[in-house]
Amino acid sequence: MWFRKSKKGNGCDGMVYFCDARVPKWSYQHSLAGKIERLIDKSALLRDELGGKTVAVKMHFGSEGANRTIRPLLVSKVVDRLKKKGAKPFVTDTVRIKGVDYLRVAADNGYTHLSCHAPIVLGDGIHGLDGVPVDSGPTVGVIDVASAIYDSEYMVVLSHCKGHIQSGYGGAVKNLSMGCVAAGSRRGKDEGSRGKMHSPVMDSPFKWDSEKCTRCNICVEVCPRDAVIFEYDEIKFTEECWKCGRCARVCPTGALTSTITQDKFQRGLAEVANAVIGTFEKGRIIYINFLLEVAPECDCMPASDTPIVQDRGIMISGDPVAIDMASIDMINASSALPDSLAGEKAGRERDTLLDRLYSIDSSRHVRELASLGAGSMKYRMIKLD
Ligand code: SF4
Ligand code: SF4
Questions:
Q1: Would the CB of 371 count as within 6 Å of ligand 1?
Q2: Fewest C-beta in 10 Å: which of 73, 317, 334, 351?
Q3: Which of 208, 210, 215, 231 best tests ligand 1's pocket when mutated (most atoms within 8 Å of CB)?
């Protein structure tokens, strides 16, 4: 097992810089493209020491049908600011579907060398097997951090903030944990793959209720590995399954459900995020959260539902906990948009807008990361003019 000689931690001072999505004046500097440039400069988080250094710009490329991801234009503005400091950025994600097909998805969603101004790289290799084993702690154990991320000297984490059916909310912390771990592992099936976070029971990842199952085949169609099959009218998961959890998430009747508990899942997310942070030297990860087209579900789903709140803006911070808490608070303080999932769930039993989406404590994994000392629950927000 390899470890970076790290001075663990981040720039965890609780500072969050924010620009509003509203346009007060009709000028480029008040556009989102102009604002993200000014926001990066104001934060002073991109330092001169970046010159000549490799920087992983980590994002989620989306999926076929999930179109509400971060606009390539805004990715290119981040890349240009890095290049201005002399850095060598590349734009990366870990694979979600088979090999080169994921590069096709990235291109279809607009992420190419030309649009992003930097190479597009699959962080865990063309087959999702290239990772470096790192011990994340008692809940998930050893995970394989995507090698292109592990080997980078700096990272900028671009997160599209949204709801999430398993964690309630997905932002910087989730992008660090799920997003930076290899899809598979060369050390053996299930040894260090992302699927370890979704399912503690690797040979039987999901519960299936035959009575509830309508044999609609949606789980079969959504699987990126062709790993769900029906044999003699019984559901089966083949060796190809990498426990991404998609099949259970799309099941319309609740016949197929995950076996993992919230205790394990949310704590596991935090421990793995902390392990990924630990592969970088202190202060070498910067987080940018996009509260734009805030969808109710993950960008790996086969479709993007309508936004749950109005576009709010963009945040930047050196602190993963502070930026996610600020994002969660801002989404929860927003009005639920009509004709959205949040609008449908308005007034239901849970207190906050995000918690109500799936009856989940949506900030739990962020609080768990704070309890590991990797960030500040208290934040101070500085707003761009
Ligand atoms: S999606 Fe659910 S209901 Fe449909 S076939 Fe699969 S398990 Fe059965
Ligand atoms: S978890 Fe479900 S969707 Fe994902 S690879 Fe396994 S069978 Fe396919």
A1: no
A2: 351
A3: 215
